[in-house]
Amino acid sequence: MEYIKLSNGIEMPALGYGVFLVPPQEAERCVSDALSVGYRLIDTAQAYQNEEGVGAAIAKSGIKREDIFLVTKVWISNSGEEKAAKSIDESLRKLQTDYVDLLLIHQAYGDVFGTWRAMEQAYKAGKVRAIGVSNFQAARFFDFAHYVDVKPMVNQLQCNVMIQQTDIEPILAETGTKMMAWGPLGGQGVDGIVKNEALAAIGSKYGKSAAQVALRWLTQRGIVAIPKSSHKERMAQNFDIFDFALATDEMQQIAALNQHDTGTINFGDPQFVKYLIETYG
Q1: Half-sphere exposure of 64 (CA within 13 A, CB side)
Q2: Contact present, 129 and 97 (Cβ < 8 Å)
Q3: pTM of the complete model
Q4: Residue 129 contacts by C-beta under 8 Å, 6 or more apart in sequence?
Q5: Where in the chain are the domains?
Q6: Pairing of strands 69-74, 102-105
Q7: What's the CATH fold of domain 3-280?
Q8: Residue 48 a catalytic site member
Q9: pLDDT tens-digit profile of 206-236?
Q10: Residues 12, 3 contacting (CB under 8 angstroms)
Q11: Nearest-CA neighbor of 133 among 149, 155, 114, 151?
Q12: Helices of type H across 96-205
């Protein structure tokens, strides 16, 4: 495993397992499988409604808590200093842990500054080892980071070989913020990565699949990737990416695949915000 060092010195695995859309009743089994494969970064969220399953899997794994990097996120309905503080404690209870390694604001809506104050307090109290944001696009991130005391250590964004998020990289660099990629193999309006001929051709040189090349491309950019699969065999394939390195010309060839640099979701669309609140609020 390779690691990404955050601005506070904490080391974060470069590859993790995400549980977005994993049903609550399946979460324990899926996370248990992921841990047995070798994953040590697990990414969940309050809105996923599967924190309890994640916590149960970790508790039963026999793996030392300090060897697991656990990520969760504060949802819009829990925004604001008081609500967020209560929700953090509730997440800790569901996850059966005294702390999480990384806590993110899930979406850039609601009282994000109040939420951040609660997160800063949790950070200082040792309930959280690192704090950051999710789905904050360039202008929103710049504005937010300018007005907070503890700068976000991570920004989790839709990022893959077809959505490369290159425009925001200089903005994140100003605060030493690392990028974390959700949807690293597609989905949410992006198809064709796992069957991409250019990626498959590159992979054939190393005995790797197109998906493995896509994940390796992200980690070589210093971006943490969190692929999701409910199948243990696929989990193992996604995890097996650290025994090869892409050459400079191959990295450049993959960079040419960029189609939607900032993502396929319009986070400024009121209908999208309404959908989020009504569906997950």
Answers
A1: 2
A2: no
A3: 0.96
A4: 10, 99, 100, 101, 102, 123
A5: 3-280
A6: parallel
A7: TIM Barrel (3.20.20)
A8: yes
A9: 999 999 999 999 999 999 999 999 999 999 9
A10: yes
A11: 155
A12: 112-125, 138-146, 169-174, 197-204
